[in-house]
Amino acid sequence: MIIEISDVFLKGKDKESKIEIQLNEPKKVIEILEEIGIENLGYANFYLNEIKVDKNTTVKNQDKLTVLPIVGGG
Amino acid sequence: MTYGYSGKILKVDLSTGEVGIENLSEENMRKYMGGKGLVYHYLKDSVNKNTDPYSEENPLYFMVGLATGIPTGGTSRMIMGTKSPITQGFGISESGGFVGPELKKAGWDGIIVEGKSEKPVYLYIKDDKVQIKDASHLWGKGNGEVNDIIKEENKDKGIKLSQIGQGGENQVHYACVINDLKHACGRNGMGAVMGSKKLKAVAIKGTKGIKFKDKDKITEISKWYAKYQKDKPLSKGLYLYGTAAGVESLDKSGILPTRNFKDGSFEKAKEISGQTMADTILAERGGCFACPVRCKRVVEVNKEDIKVDPKFGGPEYETIGSMGSMCGIGNLDVIAKAHEMCNDLGLDTISTGVSISFAMECYERGIITKKETEGLELNFGNEEALLKLIKDISEKKGLGKILSKGVKKASEVFGGGSEEFAMQVKGQELPMHEPRGKIGVGLGYSVSPTGADHMQAAHDTMITEEGPMLDSVKILGLDKVADPMAYGKDKAEFYALMEKWWGFLNMIGMCDFIPAPRGSMPIDKFIELINASTGWDVTPEECMEVGERGITAARKANYDLGVDESYEELPKRLYQPLENGALEGVSMDRNKFIEMKHYYYEHFGWDEKGYPKEETLERLGL
Predict the structure, then answer these.
(1) In angstroms, how far is the first alpha carbon of chain B from the final one?
(2) Within-domain flag for A71
(3) Given this model, what pLDDT does residue B1 score?
(4) Which of B79, B250, B266, B277 has the most CB atoms lying inside 10 A of its own CB?
C-alpha cells in the first residue's frame, strides 16, 4: 500500500513523505503509522483513498493512505 | 509603578491638532487587559445609533494588550477599533507584525484618534514626542511608495508604519490598515474610517522599552519556547507551509470555499496550497515580533508577464481562498499579485475576493451582463478580470464602485435573487471557512459582534477526538470533543468556551497561533508569562472571565448601536446543499441552528433576544 505523509510529521531524514509497504493483513490506520514510527498523530487528519477517515479505520494492502495536518482555522 | 503596560494612552484630535494623554488605571487594565476591552471602554460613550462612521464624531483606536511586546512569540498584536462602516456596529480588527510592540516600546498602551483633519496628515510618534505632519504629498500614493517616503523624510528606516492606500482614501467600505506593508488590520473598514479622517499613516519609533516585573522568567520561558515549538506539528505546519498548510485537507474534507461557496472542493486545490507555494514562489519564511514560529510568507514572482515584489510579504490562507478557489483561480502567481495589489491599495483581501466572486456568479447567472462589467468577461477563473476589478474597487470605478460597498449592498443593486448568495453577515463578507462542515464556525459567523469572522473561536474541526488537542484545553474547563457536524447544547457550549479563550487572547494582544489549542504553547505556560510580565496572579478562570467580559461588552455595544439579533442571519446559501466534494448534498438545518444559538445565549446569561441580562452585566462589571 502507499502512504503519503505530510512533512509536518516527519522528524529526520530517515523517512520519506511517500512510503510503499506490503500489508499482509488488514490493519488499523493508527497501527500502521505507529509501526513505521510516525508520531504526534493526535494532530493529524487521515484520508483513505481521498476520503476522510478516523484513526481506527481498517486499511487493506491496495489502499492509499494520506496523512495531513489537522484543519484548524485561522 | 506598573509592569507590562504603561498606563498611558495617547489622545490626538485631528480637528483641533491637540495632543493629550489619557491615564489608564490598573483597575481598568486588569478588567479588560487591553485590545477589544479598551476599545469598548472608550467607544461606548463616544458614539450612538446615529453616528456616521465617517464623521468626525467617530473615534479610531489603535490599542495594544498586556501580552503585546513580551519578547516570546505571538505577542505582536495591535487591535484597532471604531464604529464600523460595514456593520454600523462595534468594529474591531487585529494585526500581527511590529507596530503594536513598537507603540508599547514608545510608552503607549494605545492611541485614540478623534476628529477629522482638513488636509491629509500623518502622525509621527517618537516616544513622548508626537507630531501631526503634512501628508498632502503622500495622498493618492500606494502604501509601498509612501512607506519609503516617510522613512526617508524622517531619516529612520526602523520606523514602524500603519498606513492606508487609495482604498482607504476613497472610503471603500472594506478598506484596511496595512502595517509595515505585510500585516493587515483587515476587517470592519478600519482603513475607510482612517481615510475619512484624512490620516494617511501613523509612524512609530519606540526606544523606551517595556518594564517587566520578572524579566529573567520571561527570558527563561522565551528560550524554552523557541526550542520546544520546533518539532511540534502545530508550529511546524505553520513554519513549513504557513496558514495555507491546510488547503489540501480542507479540499479533501469538502470544506474549501469554492466559487462563492457553491462548491466545497476545488479541482486546483493542490496548485494553490501552502505546499506548492513552498516549492515555487516562496522567497522567505517571515514572522512577527520575536516569534520563532515564522508562519508569514514572503513571495517573489519575476516573470515576463507578472512580477510580485517580496516587500509586501505573501498571501495568507484567507487570500488564497478568497482570490483563488472562490474566484476559480488556480494560479499562485496571480493570487500573489492580487495580494500585493491589495496590500499596496489597502484593501481587505477577504472582502475584496468574496465581492469579486459574488460578481462572477452574478455574471454567470446573467444577473449582470457585459453592460455592467463594461465588456469584461466575468466568468469564474478569469485572472485578468480579478486583477482589473481589484484596481477598480480601490478607485470606485464602474462595477468596482458597486462592489466597493460589499456584497450586501451590491446584491441590493443587482437584484435577481442575488441576496441569497451574497455571502455576508452584518454586511461583512464570509471568511474562507465552510459552515456546512463546521457548524460551530457558522454559529461564530452569526453571533460575532463584528460580522462574519473566523477568528472568534477555535474551530470545531480541531478537537474531534480524545487526545492531545482536548488535553490541551482541559485547563479551561472544556472536557468534551466536538463533532463538526453537530448542533445542540454541547456544540453551543464548546463554541462559547473556545470563544471566551480566543476572546481573551484577542483582548490581551496574543496571536491565536501560539497558545493551545491552535498553537503549541501550553496554556499554563502562557499564563505564567503574563504573570511574569505584570507581577499579577492571573488564573485560567480569570482569563475566561475577561474573555467573557469582552464578548458581552461587544454585544451590549452592538445592541446599543441598533445592531441586534435581527442582524445575525446567515446567508441563505448555507441552508442549501453543497454542489461538489466530500460534503456534496450537505446543507445546514436552520431550525437546529436557531435552537443552538439560543443555547449559546443562555450560556452567556443573555435573554432570548440575545441582550445581556441585568445580572450578567452586573457580574461582569459592565
Answers:
(1) 26
(2) no
(3) 86
(4) B250
Q: CA B296, CA B74: separation in Å to the nearest integer?
A: 12
Task: List all residues 6 or more positions away from A36 whose beta carbon is below 8 Å from its beta carbon.
Answer: A3, A15, A19, A21
Residue B39 · residue B140 · CB < 8 Å: no
Domain that holds residue A19: 2-63
Which residue from A40, A55, A70 is facing B462, i.e. has the nearest CB?
Answer: A70
What total number of domains does chain A contain? 1
- Give B512's contacts in chain A (Cβ within 8 Å): 74
Q: Is the dihedral of CA B420, B421, B427, B433 positive or negative?
A: positive
Beta-carbon pairs below 8 A across chains A and B: 86
Please report the residues numbered 34 through 73 in chain A whose beta carbons come closer than 8 angstroms to any beta carbon of chain B.
Answer: 40, 42-45, 47, 50-52, 54-55, 66, 68-73
DSSP tally for chain B: helices H, then strands E: 24, 18
Q: Using alpha carbons, select from B244, B249, B265, B483 the residue that is nearest to residue A66.
A: B249
**Predicted pLDDT of residue B110:** 98
* Joined grid coordinates for residue B17: 491638532
Cross-chain Cβ contact B512/A51 below 8 Å: no
- For B502-542, how does the pLDDT look when each residue is reduced to its tens digit (9 = 90+)? 999 999 999 999 999 999 999 999 999 999 999 999 999 99
Q: B102-118 pLDDT, tens per residue?
A: 999 999 999 999 999 99
A68 within a domain of the structure (yes/no): no
> Domain for residue A22, yes or no?
yes
The confidence score (pLDDT) of residue A14 equals: 58
In angstroms, the Cα distances linking B515 to B225, B277, B370, B518, B520 are 11, 26, 50, 7, 6
Identify all chain A residues contacting B234, using CB atoms and an 8 Å cutoff. 43, 69-70, 72
CATH numbers and ranges of domains, chain B: 8-205 (3.60.9.10), 239-415 (1.10.569.10), 439-619 (1.10.599.10)
**Site from A5, A7, A8 to mutate, B interface, most B CB atoms within 10 angstroms:** A8
Smallest CA–CA distance from B465 into chain A, residue: A42
Mutation site for A-interface testing, chosen from B240, B248, B439 by largest number of A Cβ within 10 Å: B248
Residue ranges, chain B, pLDDT below 50 = none
pLDDT at A10: 86
Query: Do residue B459 and residue A72 have CB atoms under 8 angstroms apart?
Result: yes
Closest chain A residue to B246 measured between Cα atoms? A71
Q: pTM score > 0.95 for this model?
A: yes
Q: What is the pLDDT of residue A70?
A: 82
Which of B454, B467, B518 is nearest residue A42 as measured by Cβ atoms?
B467
CA–CA distance from B13 to each of B18, B228, B538 (Å)? 5, 46, 35
For the CA atoms of chain B, what is the radius of gyration?
22
Assess if residue A69 is contained within a domain: no
Nearest by CB to B243, from A51, A55, A74: name it: A74
Nearest CA in chain A to B431: A74
Q: Which value does ipTM take for this structure?
A: 0.90
Residue A17: what pLDDT?
85
